[in-house]
């Protein structure tokens, strides 16, 4: 039986504990939070019994002796939590972002390698059926070679709490999901970005609730992102609305269930060509879905000798670099080259 602990018993911890309860031979043996009553409440809610309750990672590990640590703390505490867990010989699954800075992310990658342990990040959008099917369609050549990716994200959530007082709130807290999905679907890596960030006059956020960014990927591919967290009316899905243009045609996804593609055929009037529907492949038998649960399943399987998860830290840093590149560009007003 594998022993697991979770630190950070806020709202997100519910999804983590619900997923963990479905995995065979995994036992939650401890919870921690700076507010011990929050940890006790989660333990009672999920009927975890007589487990270790702590207020810090050191006591949690010393008393519970876990094999794996689930890190659901705020980004500012992440480096300490992950480095402490790795030093204690634990594998770690973290909430996003994997670090507050690229230097911290590089350090955590080095620490995980030195410890011979996994540090994996929850990029649960990769595990959505739509994202997987689009990746399969692109790999199958459904629209030819990708030349550009266009993404719209327009919602108006009133979270309250820390998000509404954050700097760069859209880019730092949410956009990494979209950036990571674009990187995954196109099987490409970011090279540079130009970004403009603003806060509309109707915004209830402190700063940076809206942004537009143009990323340069390898092979001349352009990724165009437009987003806002204070856009009431005609909202997109949480997964964004996508248009992916290729050398043979175009694929669109509404972020829900509607994925369509068309490819060009013969010219019909000298101005436009005929178009025909291009089949979107179904999920492959090997495709992992399930959102949050899918990430956790791959992580636990890897700790038991399975393949390395695709959202492991040394891969996920590419998506984090997109976020910090966009923020640097927004702050400086210039094009920024992305390096890791």
Mean pLDDT: 93
Sequence of secondary-structure elements: EHEHEHEHEHEHEHEEEEEEEHHE
The total count of helices amounts to 9
- What's the main sheet like? 9 strands, mixed
CATH topology of the largest domain: Dihydrodipicolinate Reductase, domain 2
> In whole angstroms, how far apart are the ends?
37 Å
**Neighbour order of strands in the largest sheet:** 14-13-12-11-7-10-9-8-15
Round the Cα radius of gyration to an integer and report it.
21 Å
Domain count, please report it. Answer: 2
Report the CATH architecture of the largest domain: 2-Layer Sandwich
Give the helix/strand class: alpha/beta
Helicity range: 25-40%
Q: What fraction of the residues are assigned to beta strands by DSSP? A: 25-35%
The CATH class of the largest domain turns out to be: Alpha Beta
**Bulk shape:** globular
Low-confidence stretches: none
Tell how many strands the DSSP assignment holds.
15
């Amino acid at each position: 039986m594998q022993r697991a602990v979770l630190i950070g018993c806020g709202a997100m911890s519910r999804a983590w504990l619900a997923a963990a309860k479905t995995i065979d031979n995994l036992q939650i043996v401890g919870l921690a939070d700076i507010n011990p009553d929050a940890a006790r409440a989660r333990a009672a809610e999920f009927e975890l019994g007589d487990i270790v309750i702590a207020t810090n990672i050191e006591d949690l590990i010393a008393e519970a002796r876990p094999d794996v640590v689930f890190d659901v703390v705020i980004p500012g505490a992440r480096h300490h939590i992950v480095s402490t867990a790795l030093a204690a010989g634990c594998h770690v699954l973290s909430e996003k972002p994997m670090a507050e800075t690229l230097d911290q992310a590089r350090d955590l990658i080095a620490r995980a390698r030195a410890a011979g342990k996994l540090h994996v990040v929850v990029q649960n959008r990769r595990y959505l059926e739509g994202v997987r099917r689009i990746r399969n369609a692109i790999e199958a050549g459904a629209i030819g070679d990708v030349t550009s990716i266009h993404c719209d994200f327009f919602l108006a959530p009133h979270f309250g709490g820390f998000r509404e007082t954050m700097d760069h709130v859209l880019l730092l807290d949410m956009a990494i999901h979209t950036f990571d999905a674009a990187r995954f679907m196109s099987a490409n890596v970011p090279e540079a970005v130009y970004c403009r960030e603003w806060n509309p006059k109707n915004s209830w956020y402190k700063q940076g609730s809206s942004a537009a960014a143009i990323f340069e990927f390898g092979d001349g591919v352009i990724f165009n992102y437009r987003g806002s967290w204070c856009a009431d009316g005609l909202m997109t899905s949480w997964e964004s609305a996508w248009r992916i243009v290729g050398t043979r045609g175009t694929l669109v996804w509404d972020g829900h269930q509607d994925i369509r593609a068309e490819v060009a055929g013969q010219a019909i009037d000298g101005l436009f060509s005929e178009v025909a529907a291009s089949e979107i492949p179904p999920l492959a038998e090997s495709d992992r879905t399930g959102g949050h649960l899918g990430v956790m399943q791959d992580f636990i399987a890897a700790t038991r000798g399975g393949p390395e998860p695709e959202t492991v830290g040394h891969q996920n840093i590419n998506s984090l670099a997109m976020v910090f590149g966009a923020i640097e560009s927004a702050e400086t007003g210039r094009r920024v080259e992305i390096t890791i």
